[in-house]
Amino acid sequence: MKNIPTIKLGVVAVSRDCFPESLAVNRRKALIEAYGKKYPKTDIYECPVCIVESEIQMVEALEDIKKNGCNALCVYLGNFGPEISETLLAKHFDGPKMFIAAAEESQNDLLDGRGDAYCGMLNASYNLRLRNIHAYIPEYPVGTAEECADMMHDFLPIARAVVGLSDLKLITFGPRPLNFLACNAPIKQLFNLGVEIEENSELDLFEAYHKHDKDPRIAEVAENMRQELGQGNQKPAVLEKLAQYELTLLDWVDAHKGYRKYAAIAGKCWPAFQTQFGFVPCYVNSRLTGAGLPVSCEVDIYGALSEYIGACVSEDAVTLLDINNTVPADMYQESIKGKFPYSQKDTFMGFHCGNTCSRKLKSFCMKNQKIMARSLPEEVTDGTLEGDILPGEITFFRLQSTADNILRAYAAEGEILPVATRSFGGVGVFAIPEMGRFYRHVLIEKNYPHHGAVAFGHFGKALYEVFKLIGVPVQEINYNQPKNLPYPTENPFVKE
User: Fold this and answer.
1) The pTM is what?
2) Domain 9-161, what architecture?
């Protein structure tokens, strides 16, 4: 399944007409050469039409990169740059854009060879703000050809997420379960982000499911599930139902995506789902999310949106977990203390019933949903994929709209520890530096819900820039701050 965009980055060099054009030409050539050596398999396009010095040349360059299929733009200041033309180029380009600038090459060439792009970047940024243009500017945007090549490469996951959101349809089934007010989802900010949303009832889904009764494709999908599960296929009787449900969701996406290229789903999974469908959808959710079509639990709309952003940034499977329970003191003492550089408050367990895809689990098997089975017949709660999540680097993150339509986001890098959870569901022992303070002064203080998206790797840098580019106010982008950087609500008199 291809459900995230491929980025083709158009590189356009600009030049101030009172500077030698050759500076921009030669520096662009050096940049493209350096990029090709470091990242040979990445799709970039060098705009050869002209060096942009005027508004007319800006139009020529814009038409050229559009004609050549570029969906992201890099404006490269080879010298001081034309502040009006270069920012008009960014204004009229429909997609994510970045600005970078050339450093001076040698002390032996600071007469006719000095470009002053360091100065030009200041004017470019000022003009971008005047025109209300959101562009990505790296932390230090002036560099050698090799350094600028790295900046361009760092921009690709950011651009993927921005392009993906601009062409995303979020499909939902059913209202949130009772007592899930925390997963509120004001949809105004979805439209502000450029995301379309289609809200459906559980009856719509139930009807579509039964229209797939005896679908001839069921046997093939069920066999694929058997092969994936292997020895973990402990509930073989439910596989055909799960296969029918998977086909239902995939066909719904195909029929309802409309003019949008990409999709994510926020699905209902309880309380009536299991009694009416006869299973729980966790395993199907895990398979589709692992294939690049995020499916969130409990109609968590912003959870699905967060998962989709994570998939675009990481180009890998993601998952959605409850920030669930503390690590018991005896487990911490036996398996973590002295072996890993974390306090007990830095650790917690991330859990969900069984929606993490199989390739992100150490071992796995199909089981029933233990919590639901406490009050329902066990056979209608089959369908979860249980196992400890693989140890390794992670980023916990979420984009959320508050009830009063303020966009907020957080990202916190950490790891899953190689510690047996001795629990159920898809679960792992997580460690995030200063998690205790982050839990209190971000997750609680900022009223985030208990669901967090998980990307498997450290992607905080890219996620932070995505959040900025799509319009999250900087003061509303949170992270796990070190002790020497207190939170605004942190009591300075509290001592550990």
Assistant:
1) 0.95
2) 3-Layer(aba) Sandwich (3.40)
